[in-house]
Design goal:
There is one protein chain. The chain is α/β, with parallel strands linked by helices. It has a single domain, classed as Undecaprenyl pyrophosphate synthetase (3-Layer(aba) Sandwich). It contains seven helices and six strands. It has a six-stranded parallel sheet, sandwiched between helices. The longest helix has 24 residues. The chain binds 3-methylbut-3-enyl trihydrogen diphosphate (2 copies) and magnesium ion. The site of magnesium ion has 2 residues, from loops. The site of one 3-methylbut-3-enyl trihydrogen diphosphate has 10 residues, from helix 1.
Amino acid sequence: MNPLRHVAIIMDGNGRWGLKYKNSRNAGHKAGLKTVEKIIKETIKHKVKFLTLYAFSTENWRRPKKEINFLFSLLETFLTNRVDELHNQDIKLKIIGEKSFSEKLNNLLNNAEKKTFRNKKLQLNLALNYGSKFELINAFKKLKKNNKKINEKNLSLFLQTKNIPDPEILIRTGDTKRLSNFLLWQLAYSEIFFEKKLWPEFNEKDYTKIIKKFKNIKRNFGNI
Ligand code: IPE
Ligand code: IPE
Ligand code: MG
């Protein structure tokens, strides 16, 4: 059975779900948040130590302002109301991506990270204003600036995922098969599961099925 330490998820399909059932993309984002809560709990049940959720990409700034504002207001509400609960569940929150939002949101994010820093049960990485190409370019720049040799080990020390093992599993919901600039380096050897269901429809059972399937895959890493 394959060990599993880290699951990464591209939570796609909120907009389509919202339009289909509530005639509003934003309603889909709201519904997607419920799935987030379910999947966090289920991750802990499976004793997985790291969960990385793609919440907002560097490309998502291209969306209409109204949708962007709604997404960030959802996040603000979540942080305001739920961080204590995360803390009580021994969950450590880490943001990967560039924290260049409003002062209020930056403070909420920094405080949540600080408060939960020592927690041990699960590390929840939230990819926010995250883009893998930007992350890699920055890492190379830092290697150069610090006069470090370019090798795998040194590069990974300058990535946002420093000290986080690479994901063994990537899940993308929403019936779309692409990576959308997510963890390009870290996913080099991940098992990839593309899910037809839209994110608000994805549930614990679907998730457990994927984990079970993963556990029995023959992982070669180039060997036979
Ligand atoms: C993913 O769902 C969530 C975010 C990017 C915030 P989408 O909003 O991309 O949903 P679809 O793909 O348009 O249905
Ligand atoms: C990827 O989903 C980003 C997140 C889930 C946050 P998108 O829906 O933005 O991806 P593309 O643009 O369709 O590839
Ligand atoms: Mg999408």
